[in-house]
Each structure stands twice: as structure tokens, then as C-alpha cells.
């Protein structure tokens, strides 16, 4: 059983909860998720099964899309609707569409974020949320992320009330905290803010229409059709440069051989997906000491 299970994560489950549930349903230990989603967030969570667990790190590198609701007027400990309110400020005057669009434009591109205290990032070997639960705040490392697209999803011209909310769509790089982005949007508009709703609509090329629920997984196991529900690994690694090889080289790749970098990929800095008979059999990287050569980083079995 090898491939990507396109799971639609339910609210109330951590990504780890989903992995444990899938392991139990599929009766296999070779299961891994491809990026953490907060418990309250629903949406696309690709789950790697079997050999696909070898390339999880590359699936994580792929871009993601989200739709959420930004609520101005209150901020929380967790930056989302689950935390305790720590600041409140009534909206003093209507906020115009133009003001919001100007902020979204400024935040499109490469930005710097500081991970929230309620997150799974490790500092000195300890998860930030563990510090947060102890009531501690520690210094967190900044990270650079890329916001490819940031759209306002409704047609309102003005927003007014003690609190105001508006929906956004975000396409971003790995490592982006959307709730932190919401807080930044609010800060730039002059108000405490939190993300009051969030759904991941795509990850690694997988969209909602391709996803199945945990209930669907259980049913497919009962019917013996679970393999039909798995997506090929290739679908989630389309962002990697592709090198199709022949029979002789395939034997070497399976044995972990060093290969010459083909001319058309000599200037590529990304890992390279090695294909044989239209399937990925390995991921290679440039050799650190031998010019013009590349070495295996992950080798998958040929089906």
C-alpha cells in the first residue's frame, strides 16, 4: 500500500491525531502527515502511506492555499478563535475596501514572520506551545515566507461595527502562519485582530474535490478498495525538476549510485525527481563535493 491519502481533516483533530487514526484504520505503521494543521482548522491534509513517507519533506515544500476570515477588534492568545481575548478595541470608523486592499498588496511577496507562541516550532528542544501553556513567552526566530497571492473575497465597499470581519484567500509557501498573517493585517489597519475561521483548500497540488474523510477511509478498508483512494506520489511532487532515465541507470539508482547531472539540469538548485517508466523512483541532490554529479537523497522501490 503506497501513495498519498488525500484526507479532508476534520475540526477538533490535530494532524498527529489524523496520522494515528489512519494507522489504525489501514493497519500499517508507515504513515506520515505532510504539514501541521491546527486542531480548529479543516481542509486538505495529504497523508503519506508506505514508500510515500520517504518523500514527505519534499511534499511539505510544495505551496498551499487557504481561505479564512479575518476579524478586527479583538486579539487572542492563540491568534485564532480558540484563544482567550487579550486585547479589544472597537472599530472607531468604517474601514474601506481600498484600505484593506492596500494592506493586502503590501503583504504580497516575501515577508518576515515570527511564529506564534501557540505553535509546534521548537526552541531549545521544546515546542513553543509547551512554553505558552506554562504561561511563558520566549524569543522566537524570525522566518522568511512568501505570499504568492492575497485576495479579498467579498465585494463590500465599507466595513463597520464593534468588530468587523472579511474573508481572504491566501496562496503561500511552506512555513507560513496564516493566523499570524491575519494579526499583521489587523496591526497595519490599526486594530487587534485574530483569524476567526480557516480552511486549507489545497496542498501539494491536492484540492478539496480530491479529498476523502476518515469515514470514507474506514468504508474503503471494509470494501477492500483503499488503494483506489490513494493518489500517486508523482502528483504531489510536480514542482520538482524531472529526469526520466532508462533501464541501465534505473538499476544504479535502486542501488544508490552517484549519477552525472544531465546538461538540461546543470543550473537547477532544487532536488531532482528521478523517473523510470513514468514513476518517481528516487530524489537526487547535487553532490556536495563532486562537481557535475548528483547523489541520492531518497530512494523508493520500483513498483
UniProtKB/TrEMBL annotation:
One Pfam family hit: TruB_C_2
Biological process (GO), any one: tRNA pseudouridine synthesis
EC number: 5.4.99.25
tRNA pseudouridylate synthase B C-terminal domain residues: 179-237
Keywords: Isomerase, tRNA processing
General function of this protein: Responsible for synthesis of pseudouridine from uracil-55 in the psi GC loop of transfer RNAs.
Protein name from the UniProt record: tRNA pseudouridine synthase B
Species: Perspicuibacillus lycopersici
Higher taxonomy: Bacteria, Bacillati, Bacillota, Bacilli, Bacillales
Gene behind this protein: truB
